[in-house]
Amino acid sequence: MEIRIEGLTKHYVSEGKKVKALDGVDLVIPANQFFTLLGPSGCGKTTLLRCIVGLETPDEGEIRIGGDVVWSKAKGIAVPPEKRGLGMVFQTYAIWPHMSVFDNVAYPLQVRGMSKDVIRDKVAKTLRFVQLEGYERRSATRLSGGQQQRVALARALVGEPKVILFDEPLSNLDAKLREETRKELRSFLGALEITAVYVTHDRVEALALSDSIAVMRQGHIVEIGSPQKIYFDAEHQFVADFIGRANLMPARVRAHEQGHTVVESGLGVLRCQQRNLPAGSETILCIRPEFLHVTRGAQDPDGNPLKGSIRSMEFVGEVYEAEIRVGDRTLLARIDPDVPVREGDTVDLSVAPAHCMLLSA
Ligand code: ATP
């Protein structure tokens, strides 16, 4: 089901001060997408999710789920959370420790007054789906963190919602389990026709799971796009910087030549991604460290040639992370271990125009 949000505003009052958590958010979440709300702490992600669920009341605006208005100030509509047909998975799992796995998953169906037989069938089917068959009688606390998270997922899915919402569901797991559970989640949800709205401040999670990512800042949505679009071809400096490591610097547009925008920056004159910017305008140049190739010798003929000196090199497994002085800037770069260079060396670098992003500040 599609979710459509218009002009959503929400304030909190904290210690006598008004905090604007959502500042006129307009957003369309397409049906059956895995859609992530990503942003730094306090940008309003959780508030937006809780407004969709109905756990928080907005001040202004409208929320539609599958075409039905579930909240509108102007129309005086406020559908209660349990009538919105949603499933929700929280950061803290929120599974009940004194109950068995079966009872945890059965609970939402019992509340709806379904018959015992129907409940047994639906719970069995859902537990099979999340690969917890045979755990029905186990106390929910005698499970690993990953299994507890699967119980929470089962409980959110058992009522066959058309939309499922996640609030940082993996943040209590250690790094390895987080990665495993992330992969499971992707494969479980990929098998369903369901719209997933996922809140996280973890960029890797957002990149790995999402069909689309909305990057938020201070109660606004800054940019929406596929993981690839946001990583390789962002429009805003804040987004490019938040989603990955970035060398950022001011630049001025000189001209447009053969499908490239040529800029002048602290690195010299570079051919960049084509952008519809007039000559003379100010922009932000962004180069990700992995696209700065240290070559020492043969350079990519299509790339922008640069010269620099290695300030520092740190082995981080797989590659060296290096700081390289180029022009009047110090750039982060990655150097393959088989490139024979050392700290202090002067090196040739090259960066393809397609990887010189031009952003708005
Ligand atoms: P995090 O990643 O830290 O959970 P978030 O992006 O989800 O952050 P929100 O929790 O939505 O952000 O909070 C948005 C703003 O509203 C923040 O400034 C926060 O301090 C404030 N806020 C959230 N909940 C309340 C509340 N119940 N009372 C007062 N202020 C609140």
Mind explaining what this structure looks like?
- The protein has a six-stranded mixed β-sheet with strand order 7-8-9-3-10-11, sandwiched between helices.
- The protein folds into two domains: 3-241, Rossmann fold, CATH 3.40.50; 245-359, Nucleic acid-binding proteins (OB fold (Dihydrolipoamide Acetyltransferase, E2P)), CATH 2.40.50.140.
- The model has no long low-confidence stretch (mean pLDDT 91).
- It contains eight helices and 21 strands.
- The protein has helices spanning 45-53, 101-111, 116-129, 145-157, 175-190, 203-209, 227-232, 237-243; strands at residues 3-14, 17-29, 34-38, 60-65, 68-72, 77-78, 86-89, 163-167, 195-200, 212-217, 220-225, 247-257, 260-265, 268-272, 282-287, 293-294, 304-315, 320-326, 329-335, 346-351, 357-359.
- The two termini are 35 Å apart.
- With 361 residues, it is of the alpha+beta class.
- Residues 12, 14, 19, 21, 39, 41-47, 201 line the site of adenosine-5'-triphosphate.
- Adenosine-5'-triphosphate is lined by residues 12, 14, 19, 21, 39, 41-47, 201.
